Please model this.
Amino acid sequence: MKDLFCKRWKAVLSVIFGIVIFMICRFLLCALMNYHEQSHLFRWTGFYLRDQLSSWDGFREYLVSFITQFFYVEWLGALLIALLAVGIQQVVWRLMHLLGLGRSWLYPISFVPVALMFYYGLIPQHYRDNADFREIVEYDYLMRTHQWQAIAEKSAQAYPQSEHGIRVTNHALAIQGRLLDEMFFYQQTGPKGLLADDQQQEPLTYYALSDIYMHLGFINESERLAFNAKQSLPNHHKSGRAFFRLAETNIINGNYTIAMKYLNYLRSTLYYGSWARNWLEKLGDETYTEQQYGNVRRRRTTQVNHLIAPDKSIMLTELVQQDSTNRLAMDYLLAYDLLTLKYERVLEHLQWGEQLGYYTQIAPRAVQECIMGSWLLFHPDATELPIPISKDVYETTGTIMKAIAMARDFNDPSFNEPPFSQSYWHYRIMVLRQKLSTTP
Amino acid sequence: MKQIIYLLLGIICLVGCNSYPEQPIESDKLPDIVPDYVGVEIPDGIAPLNFYMADDSVDLLDVTMVGAKGGELHVNGSYADFDMEEWHELTRQNIGDSLVVTVCARRDGIWTQYRSFPIYVSNDSLGEWGVTYRLIPPGYEAWGQMGIYQRDLASFEQSVIVDNRQMDGQCVNCHTPNRTDPQQFTFHVRGPHGATVVSINGQTDILEPQNQSLGGGMVYPYWHLSGRYIAYSTNNTHQNFHQRSNRRVEVYDESSDIILYAPDKHEILLDSILASKDGLENYPVFSPNGKTLYYCAAQRVDSIWKNYQQVKYNICRIDFDPQEGRFVGTPDTIVHARQAGKSANMPRVSYDGRFLLYTVCDYGCFPVWHPEADLWITDLQSGEAYPLTEANSHDAESFHNWSLNSRWIVFTSRRDDGLYTNLYFAHVSVDGKVSKAFRLPQRNPKEFDEETVCSFNTPDFASGPVTISRQQLYQKIMSSDRQGHTLIKP
Model:
């Protein structure tokens, strides 16, 4: 073995290099690989080739898109990058030979160019330098791959710093039915950390927003945000993920002619192609569409002329009215009420949820905290609370409300410590602090 | 060696030679071709009307086109791709008559011959070099790449007038020439280097995009024939989005007025008649003799995001004194759309002064997102108003313009897929009869339909190509120098 290593140490070194690159791409940079994949769309058509080659940088773009399409399959993308890296290293070594630098002790030098290419080519500067952007990329990857538990665990390890991270965490918890219990275990930034629809967003966040709206049943909003994602890509690239969503939303809404346009666009791609070709055959087959998207279709509101309301509570209410089995929308409605500090709505929507068969055992933790605390603000007696409160919430909320009643300064650091820091009332104090700091 | 050459020639022949219909099954149906050119009327000199079959299972087409006055074309391939010179020769030969088109399509090796159909070659020429338009993804808030382009209508050649990639991706819109003259045009740039560009015979002014005193950006322009004035609307525009239904976007104005800009004096006239407090004035258009201004007008409503369906526009007109550059008298309503529960927009008077062309929809001033939007004409001699039944479709017809000889119109339509607007052309006879519209020809229409993810916007005819230096224009726009103006309130 030792002899083999001595004789073949250069080959072994290259193999180890390849394995390291593979492991880095597969496990450390899988979110970044996902980001690259969804920011390019390679199509196996003559038109695409001609179109790309018509610009001066087109050939490089064509090659990059060709490679990134394989990132759709994580291990394959990692393997391809590893093989490319080893291949380039070998070419460099051959060149060194040709230049008379082929001495064995110089062999490690042949790794330097490809290592630099890997670092600067695959990892964009804003990813290397910007922690917020890294967080957005990582949460977006987990969101796209529906790793709800991984999102919850990631947030528990380090609270998300970006509004996007908070929004994705909220959604992952909502999907798992944990949102209303755990949403104040980490810092909330307000209703936009739950649902946002304005254009003041980091373009990458459009994808996750589109997913959230899709899951809830806001199909038109999901389409809008996917379209924005498509149009916000750097260098006017196309995105398979965005086209896929646009095709989906148009199938759901019955706009088959437009869906066909997007499906035609995708059918010549490697990884979206079979899905697109299948749908091109099935377009108009209502039985098949019902099987695939029947649940989503039923979630849509039937209010045909309603525009996006500034108050998302109205829209979420319509969703629950339309489909009372839409538990996700019900949870979002209550979470939205909590984040907009609407006590009456929390109480009203809790009762509505109970009538629909939700929260029948006991109200979710954040709702209990809100209702009990708000009650205590105006009623000294905690014996006539409007809803049953669990022992744990009763004790912590009682402690918190006493401290609030006696507080002279809400900037006191003790408000950032447990039990405050993991309570609805911490969020409420944060909002109050923000108001006070912006009021002249 | 010889055998190898013969073998190769044989293979080339087998691969290269097309099959031709032999004893096809005759069908009494018309062929389902895309674009739909069945029975359309075209001007001599238009680019070849290439087409393909809507049915994907067709693998080969065989098309014969016979001129009633003589001449014949024959093509065979995956789509009908006519030779440019032969096409022009055939249409020239058949002015005032028709071309009879016979389509045979092959599916699974079996040929079907469809009922022949005519394409009429009009006696009226187009009289224009081409068209200008904007290409933009028909989206919401983010647009990415867009630009203003020009297209030679006798061929498939498209070229750039401005490309937003050269201007930090800013929005460009509303390119408007003076009576199709490429030497006089205006357009807007929205963004950090926003501007209104006015170019007259090579002299280009870059104006501020908006002025607080005007209450909004300069938006929809129209030139006075003298070139001494440009009327603009100034709009405080918002957009919102439908939660459900195929109406995706709703665009509405919270306020809008009309101003008059005099490029030679750099003066802006803000007349209270066209800037009323409770009214919305929009889409100004001069009559061809320059003595009248047509425009749309509606009453403002409160909480417009809720009551947007109550805003309905009439088309009005007011006299204009070109010598003094002043509006005279009181406005007169020409199209009472509101009484009919409708909204009339985008008036355009034919250059012979005979017809008023406009878009009618259920409400509002942005019909491109309204599937019910149709084109209408009011005969300004008789007062008769009617929809362009032959040219309209089930989906939105919106922005439009006349050719200088007043015999052709160009307009945008969403009829093809309900989202991506295309350019359509229709003939208007001297007595106002409108033909079936035909789509802007493309070299390979199937590839165009599958690959293009942009909409055509704000088209107008062009008597020649715009030849301004793009680099100089980009530099001027990207600089901070902006032409000031004097505001006049009579």
